[in-house]
Amino acid sequence: MPAPEILQQPSGPQPSAGKPAGQPSQKSMTKAERRELQEKQRAAKAALKAQGGPGGGGSAGAASKPASSKQAKGSQPKPGGDAGSSSKHPGGAAATSSKDAHGAISEDPAAGKKGPRIFTHFGLPKSIGHTVKGDIHPAVVRLGLLFSEFKICGANARCIATLTAFKNVIQDYTTPPHNTLSRHLMTHLSPQITHLVSARPMSVSMGNAIRQLKLEISNTDIDLVEQEAKDLLCRKIDEYIRERIIMADEVIQEFAGKKIKDGDVILTYARSSVVEKTLLRAREEGKKFSVIVVDSRPLLEGKALLRSLTSGPDPIPCTYALLPALPSLLTEVTTVFIGAHSIYSNGAVYSRAGTALVSMMAKGRNVPVVVCCETYKFSEGILVDGFGKNELAPARTVQPHGSTPTPASEPGLEVLNPLYDLTPPTFITAVVTEVGLIPPSSISSIPLALGKAIL
Fold it and tell me: What is the pTM (predicted TM-score) of this model?
């Protein structure tokens, strides 16, 4: 039996050992002929790997190569597939890991189904336990895991946790020789920020807080002793958290609480920390009202809000319902209170998916829709819908209150859960901030009124 033919590109002027006698040298070939020869060589190597390597059997001789080449070409990835993975694993099914349409690595081939390409630009939380790269502080690594597992959820909670972790990073930082803290510390923070973004897409509030922190770092006096400079930055972080989040929430609670009267029926959607504090404070002031908590998958955050409102010495009468029951509940609602992930300069509210539906139906019933949002969540950009920018919940989401995880995708069914939607300003009655109640049409003037302090 003749030895199997081996196609190999010559590395020098001498012809290869496995070259057929009638085949011309590469020097005498045209560019197109050389390209065709290289394609055949790649196809032959791919066919050998698919059969188990070069020693996979000598019967796959020259007669079987055309079919193997066609098979290798036929296994090229489709437009929506993972080209890099297919080139390394021509066998497809034999691959031990795969990428889904959202960029998430899955060790289970069945879990690597290709989702609709129309959603591939949505951010997806990733499991980053084994992908730590660079000089990442342990506090940041731990925080990234909490973000990716949704154990820390909510714009305020994520921002406070991020700034607190950066305080640890700053205190453990040492300026290298021939460098200044105001220049090198920002370089040191960059991989920390990248790591958090790889765990879960950054929120607008986190981005504003990080930009403010970088501004404070760049303004640090280079003549300060290093420890004094680090202590000063940590105090600046504490001031930002206290003034822009904690105290802002207290002012919002006072303004929004004035809109709650005895006998009111307040409807709220999902869970907003500032709305929760507003309702609890109004109850402490002796106001008698009831709350309807509307909720939806995949996070079911309303259950945690329901537990908070109904516990304590003076529980608030509550009704819990899922989003499909909204039309039958709006007939008795007096005011809708919702939170916001961020607000854009055109007055659009970016919040938990389902907020737009709640606001639209409330507007149709002439029910006031009040948004509670701190000014540090404002964005100077413009967003016209929830499709250009969004985030997907992972296939398996463990709810913070400890209920059953969301079912994973089944064969032929891809589970896609966008976390946010955009509510047009026409559906919003007023926005309650720490600077007062303002209409959505005046959102763009807030940064200018504050001297562009909102970064």
Answer: 0.70
